[in-house]
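User: I'm putting together a small comparison set for a docking exercise, and I want a reference complex before I start. The sequence is below, and the ligand is NAP. Could you produce the 3D structure with the ligand included, as structure tokens?
Assistant: Of course. I'll restate your input first, then give the structure tokens for the complex.
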Amino acid sequence: MLTGHHLIAGQWVAGQDTFASSPATGDSFSFAVGTPAHVDAAARAAEAAFPIYGALPREARAQFLEEIAAQIDARGDAITAHGSAETGLPDARLVGERGRTTGQLRLFAAHIHKDGFLDLRQDAALPDRAPLPRPDIRMIQQPIGPIAVFGASNFPLAFSVMGGDSASALAAGCPVVVKGHSAHPATSEIVAQAVLAAIEELGLPKGVFSLVQDGRRDVGEALVQHPLINAVGFTGSLTGGRALFNLCAARPSPIPFFGELGSVNPMFILTQALAARGAVIATGWAGSLTMGAGQFCTNPGVGVVVDGPKVDGFIASLIAALEPVLPQTMLTDGIADAYRAGAARMAHAGARPVLERPAEGRRASPYVYQVTGAEWLANAHLAEEVFGPLALLIRAKDTAEMLQIAHALQGQLTCTLHLDAGDTAQAQSLMPVLSRKAGRVLANGFPTGVEVCDAMVHGGPYPASTNFGATSVGSLSIRRWLRPVSYQNMPPELLPEALRSL
Ligand code: NAP
């Protein structure tokens, strides 16, 4: 069932070198190592496909997205088996994530049927306007051409080969070249098989989608620097993302890099809510923190409280909820090592342990640390993300210091308020700050579990994302791969079809 090859323009292509997958359970398989030559072939094929694919009626692109979803579902059992073995995530998570992946393909298919996503505009001609007549000007959003996508390690389906970045690019009319993540090459290949089946079923140009399996760093570098690539979608580490972002900016012709690089997703637990429902909030935090071994970009890694008599009880409830959590398997050995190194960094920066339980190899146990507000404000290392189930509780001395902490935050994907009616004034002072810091602000909830919908923003100021005007989840994510073009006094037969009948 697995070829172990790259998929380039409809062909399964071997490589000179191979690498062995490192599944959490089960057999390892051999996969071709990608090279810059594979990237070049894929990018050229994508460019060749673009004039045809980008010009297809929206209905045909929607049909393609729906067919990909059906082909993924048809391979559901194999995807779950390989995905679970490769990542260590439970079967139920893989099944749920597949539903999200096919759901977003179908959402985007429905969305592009509506004219709204093209943002059509017209300023009708005013031939008699004085002192100068106005020409007829019409605007439309147009696809930008081939896109590079980096599969993320922590969502082997929903942010990987046919995850949100790829699906939104195809919805926009842009061919896609994916660099697969080495953590789940078998899952990647099966999803690529599904996409190829959809391409063949509908007779689309083969270059509309290619998958280059993991390679050395030169594959990612070649991909973002390839002159035929027009933009990049990325989810991963701050270090890796920043390196690739810099390469995009340094190109002779720079291109946008839509990277999602990290967030600690702070939760502000306000005084009345803490007093009335501290134990419930602590239990909810423990559940959100340890879901998927904490390997979510929206994992709530930081809680901020105003210190007082209720805080020790809150911590006791948090520990009581976390103590029964058994060590969980992480996505890769490297991510597990990085998690432990991150915890050591916290301790080195002065955070005091509240809960530290041993876990070895690829496993992680939850850690809880605490600091005062003054300590957190004085040490920038305490604001860094530790990817995994690590919680840092910041005990501010008063409301003013809590506000100071909010001001000092870096850009976040989410900020959360836990509040009761008596907390309104405190919340009102925080809101203007939090809405400048985050892409999504929540009340009385937990940030994990990102709804895929029209109003979702999964992004935020740097380093949450490299482009605060965009989202990588929801139908607005399609906008990343479009460019506005104005047509002035254009004869109707030369206009894009959607602009003719305005
Ligand atoms: P990563 O190391 O950033 O790698 C992501 C992708 O980018 C991989 O395909 C990687 O290729 C490539 N890459 C990274 N640095 C590169 C460079 N300098 N030049 C060219 N290509 C480069 O992320 P990861 O492997 O998913 O996990 C490692 C860490 O990322 C985690 O410990 C966590 O801190 C973070 N992470 C964050 C999120 C988030 O939601 N923001 C999600 C997942 C992971 P290679 O595999 O060939 O290196």
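The chain has two domains: 35-120+145-261+465-500, 267-443. The first strand starts at residue 6 and ends at 8.
User: Thanks, that's exactly what I needed.
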